[in-house]
Amino acid sequence: MDSGLTRRGFLGSAGTAVAVGATGCALAAETAAAGQARPVKIIGISCSPRKGKTTIAALQACLEAAKAVDPRIEVEAVELAGLRIDGALAAGIPLEPGVKDDFPQVEAKLSDPKVTGVIIATPVYFGNMTYLCKAFLDRCFAFRKNNFALSDKVGGVLAVGGVRNGGQELTIQSVQNTLLCQEMIIVGDSRPTAHTGATLWSQNDNVSNDEFGLSTARNLGRRVAQVALKLSASTSTR
Q1: Which domain range does residue 148 map to?
Q2: pLDDT in tens, 117-128
Q3: Secondary structure (DSSP) of the chain
Q4: Over 70: is that where the pLDDT of 16 sits?
């Protein structure tokens, strides 16, 4: 061995090389993870019985913010208004002969392997979700029976009330309880508002003037998208 290379010097050089190599590997892995993340789809479900009204408008603002986070993100809004979704089927009570059931078409959308995030939007009826939202969530029991197919997907909730403090947060928490039973990863709206979810005030059947409420919707969309991307990247490297 060259007498100019002492044991201490050798170990020091080796340690530096290992540290540089480890850092390089970490950066390479991070870059690879970012590049290999699966396409991410976020579906928003509007549970208002009124089609094209304030709940879907708020949900669209939420989804637009989600899509703006990263070009890999795809979004889709589904309105339950006009669909026949009978919650009795969740209890094993069959429909009458000839009665239509529209839940399977929504179930198929949520079953898409690309779906990493789901945002539930509902108006507030007497401090809680709508009957249509409850029937839909009850029917989602099918996902529990299917090996918890919604497990580890990101869940966010948006509520629209007729007054500023009209039970939006109570409604959000009620929906979140159901999503927790599906083993979903629940997030709220992100900073700077950072609370339980998106809370909007419908003034004269319009949310466009509720700038604070719209900011919570946008923050929720961003938060769902950010967490969904992280989950997608982590599963891509396993």
Answers
A1: 39-236
A2: 999 999 999 999
A3: --TTS-HHHHHHHHHHHHHHHHHHHHHHHHHHHHHHPPPEEEEEEE--SSTTSHHHHHHHHHHHHHHTT-TTEEEEEEE-TT----GGGGGTPPPPTT----HHHHHHHHT-TTEEEEEEEEE-BTTB--HHHHHHHHHTHHHHHTT-TTTT-EEEEEEEESSTTSSHHHHHHHHHHHHHHTT-EE----TTT-SSSEEEE-SSS--TT-HHHHHHHHHHHHHHHHHHHHHHHHHHT-
A4: no
Within this chain, do residues 150 and 133 fall inside the same structural domain, yes or no?
Answer: yes
Q: Are residues 158 and 207 in the same domain?
A: yes
Percent of the chain with pLDDT over 70: 83
Verify that 133 and 222 share a domain, yes or no: yes
Q: What is residue 20's predicted lDDT score, i.e. its pLDDT?
A: 37
Q: How many domains does the chain have?
A: 2
- Does 117 lie in the same domain as 194? yes
Res 233: pLDDT: 87
> Do 8 and 56 share a domain, yes or no?
no
Can you give the pTM of this predicted structure?
A: 0.83
